[in-house]
Every structure is written in structure tokens, then in C-alpha cells.
Automatic annotation (TrEMBL):
CDD domains: HDc. It catalyses: a nucleoside 3',5'-cyclic phosphate + H2O = a nucleoside 5'-phosphate + H(+); 3',5'-cyclic AMP + H2O = AMP + H(+); 3',5'-cyclic GMP + H2O = GMP + H(+). Zn(2+) 1 binds at residues 212, 248-249, 355. Signal peptide: none annotated. It comes from Tachysurus vachellii (Darkbarbel catfish). Keywords: cAMP, cGMP, Hydrolase, Metal-binding. The active site is at 208 (proton donor). It is an enzyme of class 3 (hydrolase). InterPro entries: HD/PDEase_dom, PDE1_N, PDEase, PDEase_catalytic_dom, PDEase_catalytic_dom_sf, PDEase_CS. Pfam families: PDEase_I, PDEase_I_N. This is Phosphodiesterase. It comes from the Eukaryota.
């Protein structure tokens, strides 16, 4: 096993990298013991290990230096511990994830712990598959399309008796081996997902319900897979992405943030008018985890939990549409200026794209989401009229040019976002492919072989759909638009049923 020479190390070192390095060191010792040494490989591996330790050291010292900048501290006067405390208390920096030096386990005990961990993980995987309830045949058939962009979440919802979110989340957690990796207790997972689905039904929304959450969760999985970004992520980051997608609209009230602000709702008061609903989605979901029976992350270590929470908060807050322009602009600038891509920013953009992805999907899906969304907008318009407020844009059921607004939404919001996702993914993936000629480095990289072709295919796939959908809306405009979208929910479903 040889680690790639010259690979630049991110300043944050993942547990996977630490583990691979420990195994690597151990193997080098064994090779030296039996005098079976390839000097070139040994040199490269030692070089890599030194870079890792250097990156770790730089990371720790950098935390103090950044704090110095923020707090204007003079490093010769303030001791490191005090600087760490100031940085973690008075800046937005989170406590470093590393353990305190005196708590660090010895090398041999780390190797034993890794071996024991692998054993426990295997046992756990077996126990999980034994305890999983059998799925109905129709659900199994439907889930065969899980990796496809055209996956029909409405069908899954119907064959799973209205449990698309629960079914999909469990399937994805198992598919990515996250249940065994993070020892998610099955009973907790079941109870958590029941509560989650219950929260999504609280306001009986036409659009922002558990099916939308299932759709976004599936789309995040597909985006990670089809863009290859999956291979850039640690297991914890994949878990954070799927979790953030599943909870991203939890207990949505069916109104916009502006409606909350104008009506001075309880939520607007709690969150000071800032990303009102998004703040609630995250906060209420993490509150669910406070209960022992629904705490699916009970076996995460403290640093893992903190890292996951930080990532999930950033991702879900990034679904606030008012941050769209800033998000897109920041990522465009980053790509143009050849800066390295910030992982939380990239993952937030992926969740945001998934959240607005239905216009980039086949018409059979997009045409079923649109009337649902419009009906929810119109219900808000009805409430606004009742309260004597002016009706928000696109919320007047008697006077909204739906087709025109959909074309504009696709052209000005969806296409630029997806174009950015494609560009960003290329920038992330191409160096990874060049870096990983030896697939034994990490089994997750194996899928990279086909990713470049897939990435090109992904761009042409979503473009084909947005073009087709715009053209369908143009046809509707030509044929005289119907404003009665309530009745169209039924009609479109029947059409889609015939198409499948
Ligand atoms: N006019 C349209 N707006 C859309 C459409 N699909 C989504 N959206 C908007 O995006 C947000 C997504 O955020 P969410 O977390 O609330 O789901 C949604 O609220 C809409 O404002 C669309 O097809 N047309
Ligand atoms: Mg939302
Ligand atoms: Zn959403």
C-alpha cells in the first residue's frame, strides 16, 4: 500500500486519514522487520506521514493565529491555552476537534482500537440486517431506481403507504454503510423517522411535506453520486448531507419567511426575523435528538457530533432562498479565482440545488411538483387577503402567470445553480482522479473511474430536462394558461400515471 506522494493535505485531517496513516506506519514497521523494503515507497510513505503531522501541527497553531487576528492578541504575551479559550469563546470558531495531549492514547492501543472497531462494525452490520423488517415487493422494485435522476418519489410514497421519507432515509443510510459506521441504533432510527414524518405533516402542506423531504434527500444522494463529489467526502460528511436534506423543512408552516416577519409570528420573534423557518427546521430537529429514544447519533464521538452539527446547521440555513444570490456569487468567485473550495460551502450549495431541483427533472415529476407548490403559495395568498395584507408575488390564485413564472424560475435560478454545481464538481473531482491512480488508497475512490464521463452526462441530462420543461411551459402559455392549479394536481397525476 502506498499513499500518494505530493497530495496536499487539507488542514482538517479526517479520522479516515488518521486511521489509514496508522495502518501504513504499522505496515512499514512490519516490512522493516522482515527486511522486505521498497525504498522508494518507504520514502514516499514517510514523507506523507511527516506532511500529515506537519499539517496537524500547523492546524493547531493556525487556530491560535486566526484568533490573534480576530481579537488583536499579541502572541508573545498571551499563552496558547488562553488564546484557545479566547478563540473558542469570543470568536465564531468552534473548539478544535483534537483531543488534549495528555489524553492521547498510545500507538499500540490505537491499532488495537481500530481492529476492535472493525470487528464491532461487522457485528453491527449483521445485527442490523437481521432486525430490519421485510420490505413489500413493490417497495423493493421501486428502490431499484434509487441511483437514477428520474427516480419517482411519488411512486415510492404510494407503495410505502405514505412513508417515502422513512423508507428512503433508511435505504440510503444502509447503502452508504453509515448505520454500521456510526452505530445508529435501529430502534432509534425508526422512532426518529416516525417523529420526523409526523412533523412534516403538522401543517398539512401541499408541497412542504415529507414527500418533498424524501425527494430532496434522494436528490442530494444523486447529486453526490453523479457529480462524483461523494468521493471527496468523509463518511461523517455524507451522513451530514443526508441528515440535513431529510430535516431541511421539518415542521414547515406552509408560509414564506416574509409572511412570518410581516405577521410577527412566534417563530419570527424567536429567530429575530433571520432565516426564520430554516432556523426552526434545524433547531426543532436537533431537539428531537435530545430524546434518548430518537437520538440516532448517540454513538458518535463528541468531535464527530460537533462536526456533524456544525455542517448540518450551515447547510440547512443555506436553504434560505434569500441567501441564493450571495451563495452563487461566492462560489462563482471562488471558481474564477482558482481558490480552494470550502467543503461546507460546497455542500450547502448541493443541498440548495437539490431543494430547487424538480424543474431539472423529467416533466412527469416537475409537472406534479408545480401545482403543489402553487397551491401552497395560493393558500398563503388567501390568508394574506383575509388579514388585509397585500398579497405576496405568485400567491394570488386568481392572477398568477404560472407558466411564465416557471420559465423565469428555471432560467434565472435553476439553470445558473445547476451550471455552478457542474463547474464546481469538475474542479473538485478532476484533481482527485489525477491523485488516485492507486485505488487501494481508499475503496470509496473506486467509483471515480467512471465519474468524469458521468459528470459530462450529468450536465447534459439536467440541461435536457430544463430545456424540455421550459418548452412545455411555453406550450401551455400558447394554449392559454389555466389558473386553476388546484384541480391540476389531480390531472397531472393521472397524466404521470399514464406515462409510467
Ligand atoms: N416559483 C417557483 N419557486 C420554486 C420552485 N421550486 C422551488 N421554489 C422556491 O424555492 C424554495 C425552496 O426552498 P424550500 O426549502 O422552501 O423548499 C421554495 O420555497 C420556493 O420558494 C418552482 O418550481 N417555482
Ligand atoms: Mg426550506
Ligand atoms: Zn425544501
Amino acid at each position: 500500500m502506498a499513499l500518494q506522494h505530493g497530495k496536499t493535505l487539507n488542514t482538517h485531517i479526517s479520522p479516515d486519514t488518521w486511521r489509514s496513516t496508522i495502518i501504513l506506519l504499522k505496515r512499514m514497521v512490519q516490512q522493516l522487520e522482515v527486511n522486505d523494503v521498497n525504498f522508494e515507497e518507504l520514502k514516499r510513505n514517510l514523507d506523507f506521514t511527516a506532511s500529515l503531522l506537519e499539517a496537524f501541527y500547523t492546524n493547531r497553531t493556525q487556530q491560535s493565529f486566526d484568533a490573534d487576528d480576530d481579537l488583536q492578541l499579541r502572541s508573545d504575551v498571551v499563552p496558547v491555552e488562553v488564546r484557545d479559550w479566547l478563540a473558542s469563546t469570543f470568536t465564531q470558531r468552534v473548539q478544535p476537534f483534537s483531543q488534549r495531549l495528555e489524553e492521547k492514547p498510545k500507538f499500540r492501543s490505537i491499532v488495537h482500537a481500530v481492529q476492535a472497531g472493525i470487528f464491532v462494525e461487522r457485528m453491527f452490520r449483521k445485527a442490523y440486517s437481521n432486525a430490519m423488517p421485510d420490505q413489500p415487493a413493490d417497495v423493493i422494485i421501486c428502490l431499484r431506481d434509487l441511483d437514477r435522476w428520474s427516480f419517482d418519489v411519488f411512486s415510492l410514497d404510494s407503495v410505502s403507504s405514505g412513508h417515502s421519507l422513512k423508507t428512503l432515509f433508511i435505504e440510503l443510510i444502509i447503502k452508504h454503510h453509515l448505520n454500521s459506521r456510526f452505530k445508529v441504533p435501529l430502534s432509534c432510527l425508526m422512532s426518529f423517522l416516525c417523529e420526523l414524518e409526523r412533523g412534516y405533516s403538522k401543517h398539512t402542506n401541499a408541497y412542504h411535506n415529507h414527500t418533498h423531504a424524501a425527494d430532496v434527500t434522494h436528490t442530494v444522494h444523486c447529486l453526490l453520486l453523479h457529480t462524483g463529489v461523494l468521493y471527496w467526502l468523509t463518511d461523517l460528511e455524507v451522513l451530514a448531507c443526508l441528515f440535513a436534506a431529510a430535516i431541511h423543512d421539518y415542521e414547515h408552516t406552509g408560509n414564506s419567511n416574509n409572511f412570518h416577519i410581516y405577521t410577527r409570528s412566534e417563530m419570527a420573534m424567536i429567530y429575530n426575523d433571520r432565516s426564520v423557518q430554516e432556523s426552526h427546521h434545524v433547531s426543532a430537529s436537533f431537539r428531537l435528538l435530545q430524546n434518548e429514544n430518537t437520538n440516532i447519533f448517540m454513538n458518535l464521538t463528541r468531535p464527530e457530533w460537533l462536526e456533524l452539527r456544525t455542517l448540518v446547521i450551515e447547510m440547512v440555513l443555506g436553504t434560505d432562498m434569500s441567501s441564493h444570490v450571495l451563495q452563487v456569487k461566492a462560489m462563482r468567485t471562488c471558481l474564477q479565482q482558482h481558490e480552494s473550495i470550502d467543503k461546507p460551502k460546497a455542500l450547502s450549495l448541493i443541498l440548495h440545488a437539490a431543494d430547487i431541483s424538480h424543474p431539472a427533472k423529467p416533466w412527469s415529476l416537475h409537472s406534479r411538483w408545480t401545482p403543489r407548490l402553487m397551491e401552497e403559495f395560493f393558500t398563503q395568498g388567501d390568508k394574506e387577503a383575509e388579514l388585509g395584507l397585500s398579497i405576496s408575488p405568485l400567491c394570488d390564485r386568481h392572477n398568477t402567470p404560472v407558466s411564465q413564472s416557471q420559465i423565469a424560475f428555471i432560467e434565472f435560478i435553476v439553470e445558473p445553480t445547476f451550471s455552478l454545481i457542474s463547474d464546481m464538481s469538475e474542479k473538485i473531482i478532476i484533481p482527485l482522479i489525477q491523485d488516485t491512480t492507486d485505488p487501494s488508497i481508499c475503496s470509496r475512490y473506486r467509483g471515480l473511474q467512471w465519474t468524469v464521463a458521468d459528470l459530462v452526462g450529468f450536465r447534459s441530462m439536467w440541461m435536457r430536462h430544463t430545456e424540455e420543461n421550459k418548452s412545455r411551459w411555453r406550450d401551455k402559455m400558447k394554449n392559454g394558461e389555466s389558473h386553476s392549479y388546484e384541480s391540476e394536481i389531480q390531472t397531472e397525476e393521472e397524466t404521470a400515471g399514464k406515462e409510467h
